[in-house]
Structure formats: C-alpha cells, structure tokens
Amino acid sequence: MFRLFKSPFKKLFSFFSKAKFSIGAKLRQLFAQKEDAELFTKLEEAFYEADLGVATSQELTEKTRKYLKSNPDASFDTIIQFLKQELFQILNDQPLSIEMNVSPFVLLVVGANGSGKTTSIAKLAHLFQKEGKKVLIAAADTYRAAAIEQLDLWAKKANVEIVKSQIGGDPASVVFDALASAKARGIDLVIIDTAGRLHTKTALMQELEKIKRICNKQIPSSPHMTLLTLDSTTGQNAVDLAKTFHQFTPISGLLLTKWDGSAKGGIIVAIKKELHLPTFWIGVGEQLDDLIPFDAEEFVDALFSDAGT
Q1: Nearest to 136, CA basis, from 162, 118, 157
Q2: Which domains does the chain have, with CATH numbers?
Q3: What share of the chain is helix, strand, coil (3-state, %, to 5)?
Q4: What pLDDT is recorded for position 258?
Q5: pLDDT single digits (tens) 125-140
Q6: Residue 100 neighbours by CB distance under 10 Å
C-alpha cells in the first residue's frame, strides 16, 4: 500500500493568493453589495470563471439562493463555510491510499502532448522511490523526438532506471521489455509513459489497447492503475481532454500539472462532478519534489483562501 499522506498545501495557498482571479476575493466583493439585484447571476458567473464548470456553478448558485432564503442574516464568513462544505461533499470520497498489493505494480500514464506528462513521471518515480519502492520507467512514447531524451534525462536526475528504444520504435515492445526486466529483477513499480497524439484518436486508441494487452499478458490484471496528466491552466479544455481519454481507456485518477498563479483550481471539482474521477496529485513546480498528494479539505480551504475566513 502507498499512503497518500497529507500534503504541504501552503504551496497552494500561495499560488491562489497570486492568481489573477481569486474566487474568495470575488465572493467577498459580491456579497458586500447586499442590494445587488443581479447577485445570483454574478455569483454563478464567478463560480464558472473559477473553472467549476456549468453544472457545479448552477448547482452551487441554487443552493446558495436557498440557503440565504432560509438564513437571511447569514454573515459572509458563514456563507463561505457553507460553500466550502458543499464543495467538500463533491470531493470527500477521495482515496487516502493506493493499494499496491501486486509486484511489479504497473502504472500507465496517459496525457496529451504538452500536459507535463514526462516531468510528472519523473516526479512520481522519485516520490515512490523515496518511499522505498524499486522503480522502473518504460519510455513508450516513441513518437515524439524529444520524449525519450527528455525522460532519460529526468530518470537520471531521479536516479531511476529506464527502459527505452530508438525514436519511432514499437511502444508495445518497450513495454514488453520493461515488464520482463521488472519481473526478473524484483522491481516494485513500473511506470509506463505513452504518446499523446490526440489529433489521431484512432491511432491513440489502438496504441493504448495494444500496450494494455501486452501488460495483461506479461502481468495478469495489469495495468493496475491508469493515471491521466492534465494541464491545470487549460480550464474547461481539461474536462474535454479527460472525457476523451476516459473513452479510450478507463482512467483511475488524475495528476494536475503546471499549478501556478494562472491555475484557478475549480477544474478539479468540475472533473470530479462530471466524470467522478479523483485527483491523486498536483504538480506545483519544476523540481523533482514539486509533487504533492491531493487533500480535499485542504484544497477547498486553499480555494477560498482570499475570502478572509
């Protein structure tokens, strides 16, 4: 078992405070205008602007309307606590651990080109290695010229072994060799990189299916987990990407990358609401240690950090 320990969410508080858009500050501004006839319209717009998605924005607005009708004298801080609880209810079934009761455990990582997938794999390898796991990376994104070279460099930084081939090689062959090596050498975890060619969806689907067949043949019931990397700065486009990949291969959970001042945060809620996919990790920088486990309660607090509560 790999336990998802509580994370140093002070980093997220810092990022939210530097963001160009702050849902907490926006709500404080809105509720200060008590006689605003367009309060709930503006409230829904604020939720949507925070990347919470259409469904969640509408639902939160309606629940807030009913709450204020029943509690007309509610203070701003009380309203914020109400909203925090509503969002937490959406996220509160987040897993606290990952069962790694098979050796080698096979982790398939998918994501569109440019999503930060390669660096995320290196961070994951580093994270699991610090927990005492013997890790092997399979460089099965043989399509992009820089993918193998980049992953090789990151693997060296993380001091993790890698199985690779030449550019244009057969990705399934790389996976086969990696899994065979892992079984022979007592590796605990194999992390498989894959290509992200969304502009050729049929080819992507066929390639992923082939990789999964090879995995299952080498190690029954594998891959044991499929992780999707998403660029957190892309807003609602991330939801569409998640839907696309989820159609091709069942996704176990998410890793949100590029979490800086331009990430609004609500996209985690939108994906959870629409696709019921949990977020496992958030990438908050370019260093190997800049990967933190997701914690729903601390995330919601960080999301509203500028509300003044």
Answers
A1: 162
A2: 11-93 (1.20.120), 97-293 (3.40.50.300)
A3: 55, 15, 35
A4: 85
A5: 999 999 899 999 999 9
A6: 18
